[in-house]
Amino acid sequence: MSVFRDDFLWGGACAANQFEGAWDVDGKGDSVPDHCTNGSNTNPKRITEAFEEGTLYPSHEAIDFYHHYEGDIALFAEMGFKTFRTSINWTRIFPTGEEAEPNEKGLAFYDRVFDCCKKYGIEPLVTISHYELPYALVKKYNGWADRRLVDLYMNYCKTIFERYKDKVKYWLTFNEINAGTMRFGALLSLGTCQGYTGVGFEIPDDIQTRYQALHHQFVASAKAVIYAHEHYPQFKMGNMICYSAAYPLTCDPNDVMAAQQQMDNMNWYCSDVQCLGEYPYFAKRFWAEHGIQIHMEPGDKELLKKGTVDFYTFSYYMSTCVTTHADAETIGGNLLGGTKNPYLKASDWGWQIDPVGLRWSLNQIYARYHKPLMVVENGLGAYDEKGPDGKIHDSYRIDYLRSHIEQMAEAVKDGVDLMGYTPWGCIDLVSASTGEMAKRYGFIYVNKFDDGTGDLSRERKDSFYWYQKVIASNGADLS
Hints:
Blueprint: E1 9-13, H1 16-19, E2 46-47, H2 65-79, E3 83-87, H3 90-93, H4 104-119, E4 123-129, H5 135-141, H6 148-163, E5 170-174, H7 185-190, E6 198-199, H8 207-231, E7 236-238, E8 241-242, E9 245-248, H9 253-276, H10 283-289, H11 300-306, E10 312-315, E11 319-322, E12 330-331, E13 338-339, H12 355-369, E14 373-377, H13 395-414, E15 418-421, E16 444-446, E17 458-460, H14 462-472
Parallel strand pairs: 1-3, 1-15, 3-4, 4-5, 5-7, 8-10, 9-11, 10-14, 14-15
Antiparallel strand pairs: 2-6, 12-13, 16-17
């Protein structure tokens, strides 16, 4: 018997900039990802202000969902999806972010996508801004460093809210907003990379600019939530956090304190603002120790207090350890690496696999906020190779997902209000961190490769049929 609620939202997640392609089709403008080259686990992607001849920019075609959406959504429906988490490309609606009128062809595309979802009874879950800031706003304003982006974002929100008010109920204001607490977030999330050409992970760091830009995103998120609640009471507004479960490596009290501080700064700093409506108690000391001065305009505190989200969503892939001991072995991870946990195995990319950490995280989050939770990213990036029969037998992915769903069920039995689960990259797509296709997450294999070749045909993996069975049983049958 299933422990998940009857209306549990099983589905999958993708991002417009990582799977749509058609980067300059039907009036779309260029966004930050369109200026990012391909890369790999060992050769990091770069950002270039000018497009280099002979260089591959993977988002330009990606997997061309723009021209394949009907077939892809039909495959999602075949699996039994109740929801599909996707995002809107800001530059498809406002090519530079500053137009007086939206691009009708862009709006019409998402009408077709959402109508196709509805045809199959799939509820769209839409991220308003998912790492696709208009590049024109980087060049003119240095991205979110300039408060004028709040009004531009609100103009974008008002446009899509009104257009899709009868088609979309669930909205997330920013993807992994806490990426802004990290150096790489200047490129990925905040767009505070004006004039920078080079390796994304090596972007010069200006912590004052990052945290001020993050404040502007908080204000924008709050204003979007307030506007939605006042004009579209049927909407449910959520946040989205890149959740990093961090354990002390040892029982050294210094390790315990270091792990707590990482959890505070990485996880709670942003979600406290979005869920509780105010900066956390530890923020002032953090600002003082890092020379950060947050400029707030009159009314900002009231906006943050009023604009809290209805539900909390997050990505969970792995956990790390934290230590003050210099000789500890390190590992990579989703935006943030850490110290290796000797009790865990790791993926092909060195991300530690920790299903129990998901249960712990769900309990930690729910205890703090008492809001409905949703795991909107989770999954195993792996090298998928076809067997002698020409098919993908991804038992490793099934094992990963099964173990995490089992721990989600335990969290529900613990008393956590869990409303849905959308594994990441339900169809293979371009990696946000490395810009490669080889790091595959999907239930659906896409014939597209790191050199840009491939016929873009779609094939079901073994995990496709396994997840179909999971959804049909509402999570009861994980065999």
